[in-house]
Every structure is written in structure tokens, then in C-alpha cells.
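Batch job 17 of 40 flagged for manual review because the log was empty.
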Amino acid sequence: MTAPRIGRLACAPLPHADTEECDEFPFASTWEGAGRGDQNYSVLYVGGTQNGQAGTALGSWYGSDRILHNDAFGVRITPSQTSSTYSADAGVADFIPTSAQT
């Protein structure tokens, strides 16, 4: 079974609107995603537009910082000071190659 399929199965029992998509952390595109099979992940349905925008931003970052197969990296999430609910503007995620982390 492929990693994206396992991620979708992980979200299957959760109620959601037709406009929402399954989102997972760690990202499905990483070795730590739901596809690993160790049940050490989090899933949530989020707005499809927001999920698509986040996926596009992540893919662009992989390319611009040359994150290659098996490269380690970290994620720092900075919550917004003006919003208590999730939205596309609710926070900023910084993707950081492991070699640049302090």
C-alpha cells in the first residue's frame, strides 16, 4: 500500500465536509509520514484550498533548497498573534535543513 493511500485511510473515520482534504503531519512526502506504518503521526481534515497551497509551498521549498531523497530537515511553526483558529494566514511554517538548525 502506498504512503498517500495509508494517509487517506488514517483520515477515513474522521467526519469532514466535502470541501476538506486529509492533511497529515509529518508530511506524507517524508519518511516519517503515515505511510511508515508506525502510527506516529497526526491527521486532520482541513480546507482543500489551504491544503493545496501548503503542499505547493512545501514542494517549492524542496526544490529551491534542494531537499533531496533522505535529506533531513526540521519544521518550525510560528503561531499568529492575531488568530486563534486555523487559516492560511494563521501562522508561518519555516522549513529548515538540518545542517542549518542551531
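Reviewer: the log was empty due to a logging misconfiguration, but the result itself is present. Residues 84-92 have pLDDT under 50 and may be disordered. Unflagging and moving on to job 18.
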